[in-house]
Amino acid sequence: MAPSPAGCTTTVPYWIGVLFLFTRGADVTAWRVFWVPRDTTRFGVRRSVLEGWEDLTAREREAGVRAGDPIFLSPDYRVDPGLSAYGRSKGFRSCTRETRRNYATDICLLLNFLWSRGRGWTEARERDLEDFEHWRRVEESNPRRIGGSKWDRELAAFMNLYRWAVKAGLMKQNPVATKQVTSQYGEALTVAQARAKDARPSNVHWLTPRTWRRWVDVGLRGHTKKGGDRTGLGGPPGGSERGLCPGTCVLGPEAQRGRVAADV
Asked: How far apart are CA 188 and CA 182, in angstroms?
């Protein structure tokens, strides 16, 4: 038996020894998150399983562990059973892959902050969250302060975690202060009280395939709304730009190659 960071005595999960293979000898001072690999890769990763643990995959299946679940590892090489249960919860698993990874990363930041205060995550108080926000957003000694949009994302991760913890009976009260608001549809919603007032929503507008083709025809080819060519343009309009259009649908090196091809 070993005490968890939250101060509860629990049996350390059996796969802690496997994680120790990855961290042994390393100077770890922060919480880290590992992800259960897919069945197609886990056997290649875990060929050097400790003796007597050859049935690790079967044990994971029996415990309800799935590929893609997070495993939170504390600085003293312990796996918190509460965080592991949260990673297997329906609310967490129903999030998109990117959201799950963002949540896990943001939660680790809070875990590190609480760890520096000698607290487990289930011992967090409302004041701890207030101090954490001050450190993340205001404290001048912090060289990596964040803006409102990033803070709202982190706050959403904390709300997701602690709302589950209260419902699961691990905590009596959510340390994230909340308030009641009315949605545009007249519904009563519970939201985090510390949501940033300076958050900037993403200003992304998507074009349907039909609108995209119309934009190419009118904006680049010089067609009229009815599809005819405009007069007086002196030759085929938008040749270079029209060739670049398919390249705007890709990112990174592919887009760079598309620009070079268009210039040539």
From this structure: 5
In which domain, by residue range, is 238 found? 209-263
Partners of 124 in beta bridges: none
- Please tell me whether residues 147 and 36 are part of one structural domain: yes
Q: Are residues 158 and 250 in the same domain?
A: no
Q: What share of the chain is helix, strand, coil (3-state, %, to 5)?
A: 45, 10, 45
Token pair of 226 as six digits = 């009815």
* CA proximity to 111, closest of 153, 75, 147: 75
Indicate whether this model's pTM tops 0.85.
no
Contact 65, 79 (CB under 8 A): no
Q: How many domains does the chain have?
A: 2
Closest CA to 214 of 229, 201, 224: 224
* Pair 53, 180 in one domain: yes
Is residue 51 within a helix (H) or strand (E), and if so which, with residue range?
none
Q: Dihedral angle at the C-alpha atoms of 60, 63, 66, 67, nearest 10 degrees?
A: -30
pLDDT tens-digit series, residues 157-193: 999 999 999 999 999 999 998 887 887 788 887 877 7
Domain assignment present for residue 129? The answer is yes
Quick check: is 149 in a domain? yes
User: Alpha-carbon distance 242 to 213, whole Å?
Assistant: 11
Interval 110-164: pLDDT, tens: 999 999 999 999 999 999 999 999 999 999 999 899 998 899 999 999 999 999 9
Could you tell me which of 169, 160, 19, 154 has the C-alpha nearest to residue 82?
A: 169
